[in-house]
Amino acid sequence: MKKSTVMNTLKKRIREHKYKFTTQRQIILQAFLSSKENHLSAEDIYEMVRGENPDIGLATVYRSLELFTSLDLVKKLDFGDGRSRYELNDHNLSHSHHHLICLGCGRVIEFTSDFAEEIRSRIKKKNGFNIVDYQLKFYGYCKDCQKQHPEYSEKEPQI
Amino acid sequence: MKKSTVMNTLKKRIREHKYKFTTQRQIILQAFLSSKENHLSAEDIYEMVRGENPDIGLATVYRSLELFTSLDLVKKLDFGDGRSRYELNDHNLSHSHHHLICLGCGRVIEFTSDFAEEIRSRIKKKNGFNIVDYQLKFYGYCKDCQKQHPEYSEKEPQI
DNA sequence: ATATGTGCAAATTTTTTGCACGTAA
DNA sequence: TTACGTGCAAAAAATTTGCACATAT
Hints:
The structure is a homodimer of 159-residue chains.
Chain A: H1 3-16, H2 23-34, E1 40-41, H3 42-52, H4 58-70, E2 74-77, E3 85-88, E4 97-102, E5 108-112, H5 116-127, E6 130-141, H6 143-148
Parallel strand pairs in A: 4-6
Antiparallel strand pairs in A: 1-3, 2-3, 4-5
The structure holds a DNA duplex (25 and 25 nucleotides).
């Protein structure tokens, strides 16, 4: 889909909820759209955005990310590196995507799967819990790290 | 299993790796074993542990948790409340347990499932990624919150 | 016009670190 | 005995907040 179309959708979502579509909010969303890396920290976004608007404050970035998260435009993630990371929430994806986190080099690889519906109804029955979203993270070793450290290919008992 | 047996296993694991089994480390592990709540923050543990040993420092709690996590005795979790939470890693559980996080009241419910092995081999084939561990979090609404807010029972499109 | 949002600086909260002293093995 | 661990206080890092000013609707 075209980026400008995505931006219009985001704009619409923000306005639907009676929030203002400010320059700052637009620039921050733009940063997500133009970034090659899609797991951005508040600081990352702050740095990217300063090029476009040097006066923007880090607090605004945090406040925007909080708003976007509450509107479900963005997902807040934690890869265990001490800061939160954010990614655009792609509602068009029919299969949710998840993260493979390499314990060797720290790289985060995306991966799609659609086991959700099945588990969803199972849980609804068992716990009465109504699932709206989920996050799945895998920890392990990527191909490259396994090549460099053959012991990383062993099947560990923990799982 | 008896708690004293569990403690002995933990002690053994720590010593196997040439770390000392100090009073502080024991008290902290004891806190996990005796706590009713099993998702503890560093601060929670600090408070619990001060009863037993008032001189213990918060830094020691953090350092111990880091060590325990690296030895896989403990898992570090993030429920999005701004602080890390830790739980004893129960290797005896053949089916891993996961978390249902209620967006209404914040309650965290545990839930077991064993879909892992299946996904594990699928990923190994597809990405060459060797999975050692994984974390699965579900967000939604618990029974009680659905009772109070019928709209929480609606099936949301995001998943 | 005005409710909502922003920038700035300060405050808060969580986690980490340096160093002199203590202790398990 | 001695390498490893701890307490304390200070630092660092991440996030939040208060307030006067700015702006989208």
